[in-house]
Amino acid sequence: MSDLDDFELLGRWRAGDQGAADALVRRYYGAVLRFFEVRTRQAEDLTQRTFLACVEGQERFRGDASFRAYLFGIARRQLFRHIESERRADRLASLDEPEPQPGTSLSVLVARREEHQILLTALSGLPEEIQTVIVLHYWEGLLAREIAEVLEVATSTITTRLQRARQALGDRIRRVSRRGRASDAVLADLDGWVRSLADPAAMQALLPQLPQLVARRRRP
């Protein structure tokens, strides 16, 4: 069924074809997993929840947007629910636990390349909406129109957000980098470096440390 497009597979899925459902999941599972990996250690669970919600809500999909925009819209809502749940848990935990002390620097993040460390650290400090735009555009290759469908805003708004996202990410890179040459290398080809993070090999060593870094940055 790999030669069928998303709408054909979805139509067969709706008709009860489990093979079509499996084909759609295989086609997008990796992309949805990457969407979550940079934000949370619960990426596998949230990916499964996203596809479950897709199954449960498939009759509401009218085909007026691309299937992947529809799917990432579900993923985004799952992510926001998860983040809010984590924040509530953090607020409760902070009543009983001392505030964590600063400690994890770029030098102790175990990663293949210092440039990836800098880039991910900078990305983790950006607002969620900007992270979402960056991930969908650079990692998953969505067009501005498709991102607009995911976020339910005008395409012109996404075009503006992408411009602001590049600027914000560049500013964050300058702030978090302690070594000029590494940050200069990233800034010289920012688009290329962001896209390179979609490479599983580049992410593999970074992911164990990133959730703790993100959690600390989210604390009030």
Verbal overview:
It is a single chain. The chain is mainly alpha-helical. The protein folds into two domains: 1-97, RNA polymerase sigma factor, region 2, helix turn helix motif (Rna Polymerase Sigma Factor, Chain: A, Orthogonal Bundle); 106-220, no CATH class. It is 70% helix and 0% strand. The protein is built from twelve helices and no strands. It has helices spanning 6-14, 18-37, 43-56, 67-93, 114-124, 128-139, 144-151, 155-176, 180-188, 190-196, 200-204, 210-218. α3 (43-56) packs across α4 (67-93), α5 packs across α8 (155-176) and α6 crosses α8. The longest helix has 27 residues, at 67-93. The relative contact order is 0.13. The model is unreliable at 97-112 and 202-220 (pLDDT under 50).
Reconstruct the topology from this structure.
Elements (H helix, E strand, L loop, with lengths): L5 H9 L3 H20 L5 H14 L10 H27 L20 H11 L3 H12 L4 H8 L3 H22 L3 H9 L1 H7 L3 H5 L5 H9 L2
Helix pairs in contact: 1-2, 2-3, 2-4, 3-4, 4-7, 5-8, 5-9, 6-8, 7-8
Outline:
By secondary structure, the chain is mostly helical. It has twelve helices and no strands.
